[in-house]
Amino acid sequence: MEHHYPDFDVMAQKEHWDKHTQQIVERRLEAPMYQSLSGDEITTLSSLCSTLIGDNRKAVLDYVMSHFDNKLISDIGEGQRQKELPKFGQLVRLGLKALDGYAKSTHSARFHQLTEQQQSELIQQLIDQDPKLDVDGVRMKAKDFLSMIHTEAVAAYYSHPTVWSEMGYAGPAYPRGYVRTERGLTDPWEAKRRA
Question: Where are the domains of the chain?
Fold first, then answer.
């Protein structure tokens, strides 16, 4: 994947972060230890997220999967949820099961077994037609499921240090802070865009 900051590595800035921030960001680079997601769920969710965010790098997807796994075991509430939607955990698990079922009914294979093009086309079909997915007696709109997965996948994706480096984000500015705030100027520690 080509980007404007090929020589920039956000992790070279970590000594300027406080210890707590260093630990949080470094954990995002570790291989996940799943506590909630099962093997089939990981396989399907990883393929779905890869299609939705347009990136299939294992290290980045591992963190995205870890984000979902952590959210599934968290006791933090959801904030807001449409009343007709199941809770986050049930929506993820039943939605993945429904996605595999839909892929089997249309392509005689699980979602992760489809080609990238077939996966993209199937997702677009679900968005366009927005069928009700019915799994284990729970009904949900395909769009609601895909929207929630997309939102969470993007949030995790753009908090991965590799992606930060690629977009020139030098990580948390605390406690160092920004000095040059004028338009077009950057601090010495920020990424310099390749011409």
Answer: 29-159
